[in-house]
Amino acid sequence: MNYSFGKIDPSLIGDFVNIEYPSRRQFRDDETVERWKSIGHLYVNYTGLLREEYRGLPKWCYKISEYFKDRMNISKTSMSVYCMPPGTIMPEHRDMYHRYKDINDIDDDDICRILVFLDDWKSGHYFEIEDTPVINWKSGDYCIWYNDASHIAANIGRENRYTLQITAKVEK
Questions:
Q1: Which of 132, 111, 48, 109 is nearest to 84 (CA)?
Q2: Are 126 and 109 in contact (CB under 8 A)?
Q3: How far is residue 31's CA from residue 157's CA, in Å, rounded to a whole number?
Q4: Residue 40 — left, alpha, or beta (φ > 0 → left; ψ -120 to 50 → alpha)?
């Protein structure tokens, strides 16, 4: 198993709804998108709205990052807040971390991703990690995976789905 679950204090989470999210952009791996299309995943949008750290994030995001740094052997964190509007589906994929690896000169084996659920689960929100479905999460629940764990995310519900993504170097 290349992943685990945990929970942070939800009082660490601030306002994620009123963040200014930039326009959508397509998934960055053309080969993966072509594979999705070849098996019938023909969507307009494969990604949601991503507010990346270089655009500025609220202070509460940094407090959560520090929480993990204090408890895990990680460094070189990079964060984004992700809004997944209804109708957004990301079929099975593995994160590529292209920009993160280039900036930090890191190998795949040294990377972890922490996905913090910012809001309670709502009908139609879905996450799956290595064939394990995840629903009914609560605000502050998180999943951490290492390297390239296969996962799926979707919002076929009526409300936006929000997460904080933290990418980090695992110190050995």
A1: 48
A2: no
A3: 28
A4: left
Query: Which parts of 15-159 fold into alpha helices (H)?
Result: 30-38, 59-71, 98-104
pLDDT of the chain, 172 residues: tens digit per residue: 789 999 999 999 999 999 999 876 667 778 888 888 888 877 777 778 889 999 999 999 999 999 999 999 999 999 999 999 998 988 898 888 888 888 888 887 899 999 999 999 999 999 999 999 999 999 999 999 998 899 999 999 999 999 999 999 999 8
What pTM was computed for the model? 0.91
Burial call 17-26: b when 16+ CB within 10 Å, e when fewer: eebebeeeee
- Give alpha helix (H) positions in 23-157: 30-38, 59-71, 98-104
80 near 130, Cβ under 8 Å?
no
For the chain, domains (ranges, CATH) are: 3-170 (2.60.120.620)
Residue 34: the pLDDT is 86
Contacts (Cβ under 8 Å, ≥6 apart) of 92: 128, 150, 151, 152
Q: Which residue has the tokens 């507010």?
A: 51
CA distance 135 to 158: 15
